[in-house]
Amino acid sequence: MERAQERAAMIGVDTTTDGPDGPVQETEGAGTALELLVHGVGGTTPQDMLNDPRTVRITGDETAAVFRRAEDADAEDRPDDHRDGPVPEAYVWCNLTSGNSARALWLLLLPFMVVNLAHWMRPTAHDRERTVRLYGLLVRLAGLTLTVLLVAAACEVALDLAAWQCAGERACAERHSWLGFLSPAVSDGGWWSHPGRRLALAAMVPTALTGLLWYLSRRTWSAYESQQPMSREPEPDEESGGTSLGRPGFWYGRRLVARLRAAHTTAGLLTVAAAVGSAAARFDRRPGGPALLDTLGWLLEASIVAGAAFVVWVVCRRGRSENRLDQELDEHLVRRLPLAALVLLALALVYAGWERPGWQSAGRLPGDPTFGAIAFLQGLLVIVLAVVAHLLHRTDPDPRAVLRGLGGPAVAMLACALGGVMSGGVSQRVADWLDGTGTSIDGPPVLLTWQASVIPPLLVLLLLLCGWLAWRAWRLRRAELGRVGLDYAGEPRDPARTRRIASTRAMATLTDRAPLLVAVTSTATLLLGAGALAGALATDETPSKAADGTYGFVHGAAETAQALGSWLIGVGFILFVTWGRRAYKDASARRTIGILWDVGTFWPRAAHPFAPPCYAERAVPDLTWRMATWTRAEDGRRLVISGHSQGSVLAAAATWQLTPADRKRVALLTYGSPLERLYGRWFPAHFGPAALASLHAELDCWRNLYRLTDPIGGPVRLPGDCGPAVDREALKDPLAYGRTPEHPLPAPILGHSDYQADPAFAEERERLLVRLRPGIPAPRPQPAVES
Predict the structure, then answer these.
(1) How large a percentage of the chain has pLDDT more than 90?
(2) Which of 112, 337, 543, 695 is the most exposed place for a label (fewest CB within 10 A)?
(3) Where is this region: Disordered (predicted)?
(4) Rounded to two decimals, what is the model's pTM?
């Protein structure tokens, strides 16, 4: 222990701490100290984290585990051997978000992930429980419309474009021989050439898609949501902590996800049943049609409407239960609701396949009203959500919250836009592929064509905005040139070196411009979407004027934009999957774009069950159990949890799950942390100033390291009592401007990586370890938040 005190004195750390009766000196009774390392975006290996090729797994499995150096495997049994330094442990969780490159297909679920993010972006609000519940309800309804939209787009491609239009036209069917057996002209009136039977067969495509989404959601649900957190009683002042992340049931959303999965699966199956049954029912309602089939059609459609109403009721009825571990599961609802929808779908397929003499496929299936209603409903939900978010923000204003509390509605609008662009673009591309260069089919509904046409003007707007951001970065770079000279005063000037440092700092600030990018994009998307809806209605009402005068010019411009937009969708889809595969296989690519994906999958699936699974529902309980079992030992063990990047967010979330007594035995060291810069601004209700201040007040100590060259990490902006503030002064990057005896080779610009290379890291870690002691410190007053 004397060696530890001597080393602490060398770095200027006071080995006394403030106890209830005054300063207390560290004693020999202090237990073994543990440093729990949590890596960030991109993942790593335990060998790299522990700087030792020989590591052993202490606890965990192949997915996520805690490792130690082989020589420290039994450190608890040899406490005297670790008096002069902590026992390092590495929690490796990268397999929760990366792995087989086929998981890049999860990127296709991006709209669902984005709308789930909007649920967690609500503003901070106290004593407005009904308004908060209304906010969550609106987001869940927006998520439900995305499921219906995706399945309806699959119905459009399979039922309308392929089975109805292309198979019904001889020229189109002959170009695609695989459709020949469905065409009455090619197959000479074969059994499958009946329009209803063609639709019933094609319905297998959207049904299989719905089944695939159900399977993926259920498989990940059993692997992630079933991981039970450490049980504990809720604290009496749980609501006053400033965040709900510490509630016992926050990381256990098993019941809600199961309910939503059943509801969304049912909605998808009912959408397929409606697409098949409505086409046959429309034919049966013609004058002189068979009365029996007409009656069956009305009964089928009434059953589908009743089922849809029940699905909406299920989605609206129950939100998240966080105040306790909800062990119940609505078995009857979860099992019977999709089964009932499957029975309705089977009846719709039998009904559509009934023999109907004289029924021929012509024109389009009646899909225009469906897509128009979905687009209108999504726009209305986003507008109402914005009003609710504004009311919540006015209740408890947070100047650091993005877009004055409207971040959630803006992101929800982006989710709806992604769904609309994907459905419209894919439908347009499939129609172009089936039709070739001819005009044998009518193509997708007019609204989907107009939605594809908004892509080019939106891209032009984004290019202009990116140009403006580049100009701002260039101006900031010029300002940073002088600051770099002041930071490295007395060094020989190297203009190229100075420009590189200044450019890196300027580019790192672009992260803070993301709210502007989201605001412009979502606003433009809302306006362009309204224009697309109006254009589709105008085209339907005035088709004869589309080739004359002004209408002809508008029609030609729209066709050009539609063709360009459909091609851009195809190229974008290829790039999307390619980048996704690279992100899972290439660590450098993952560090570049992985932060956005890891932010999206950090949050539980509260609004959409088909979103990618929440890795934190496994990682946070893992860390909580490890910290609690260590700090509750009788020999006065100490713990520093050290988190980098996204690992700092996991560390904070796990610390909130501890009891107050356990939190007093924990010190937190964060570096390259997005806790305030990203999470605090985008998720103010959970990581806002009050939440971070309460966390700091309940910990023994918290220190944060950041660099001006880091595009992700930043200060947490809190005062402190184990230093002048939680934040240490921004670290120099690079460590040396030119060659020095300590750095004979040029020091690299590290940015977001390798914080351990800075001597400040070891100094702050030593400061935290010396400060901790076996006894529980006296309570401290909660610090005020810096503006």
Answers:
(1) 42
(2) 543
(3) 1-30, 226-246
(4) 0.88
